[in-house]
Design brief:
It is a single chain. By secondary structure, this protein is an alpha/beta fold. Helix content is about 35%, strand content about 25%. Strands 1, 2, 3, 4, 5, 6, 7, 8, 9, 10 and 11 form an eleven-stranded mixed β-sheet that branches. Helix 5 runs parallel beside helix 9. The longest helix has 21 residues.
Amino acid sequence: MSQKKSQPRMSYSRDREGKETENDRIAGRNPVMEALRSGAKIDMLYVSQESGGLREIIQLAKSKDIPVKVVTEAKLTQMTDGAVHQGVAAEGACGSYVSLEELLQIAKEKGEPPLLVLCDGIQDPHNLGAIIRTAEAAGAHGVVIPKRRSASLTLTVGKTSAGAASWLPVARVPNLTAAMEILKKYGVWIYGTDAGGTMYTQADFTGGTAFVIGSEGFGISRLVRETCDAMLRLPMRGKVNSLNASVAAGIFLYEAVRQRMVPAAK
C-alpha cells in the first residue's frame, strides 16, 4: 500500500483586524524575511539544523516574539511538501485578503488613479505568484482574484512572488464580473485581451485602470469578456500566439507606468 503524499497544512482564520487569512507554511529565505518585515501574522518559525546564514531571520523573528523551532532538513522538506525551503519555513500567512473598496482606498490615499490586475481563471499558483510580483514591482494598488477557479495565497504563491505577496494587497471576491461593475462605478476602465482588440500602446491608462488577465489555456471567460470596457492586443510576431499570463500582465502594467510617468517628466 502506497502512502499518501504529505500536503502543507492549510486552514482559514481571521487576523487581528478581522480580515480573512489563508494559513500556510511559507518556505525560502526571501519570502520568509519579507513576511516578517511586512508584519504578516507568523505563528512559528522553523529552521534547519543543517543550514547556516539564518541569523538575521532568527533574530528578527525573536524580536517579534515569534517562537523559533529547530528541525531537521528532512522534517522541513516534509512540512513544505518538497519545496526549496533553503533551511527555513514560517507557519502563518502569505498575506491577508482585503476588500475591493480597500484597494480603491489605497489608491486614493496615494493620490493616484487606481491601477489593478484582475485574474480570471489563473489556477496555477506559479502564475499568480509571478503576477503579484510584477504588479507589486510596477506599483499597482492590488490584485483581484475570484473565490472559485483561482489559485489563492498559498505557499507556492508566496514563494513564486519572491515575498511580494506579503506587501501587495489581494482582494478575493465572490464574483469577478460583479466586482468589475463596482470598479466601473468608481471610474475604473477595465481592459481585457483579444487578438482583435486595440493595440495596447494606443490606449490611455493614465486614469483608473484594471487589466484582466485570463488563463493561458482558456483565456478570459465569456461573461468577463462581455463586461470589459475595451479589449487590447499585443503584437505577436512569432509563431507562438500567446504569452505567459504574468508576462502579458507585465507588458500592460509597465505601459501604464510609462504613460503615468510622462506628465511628471515634463
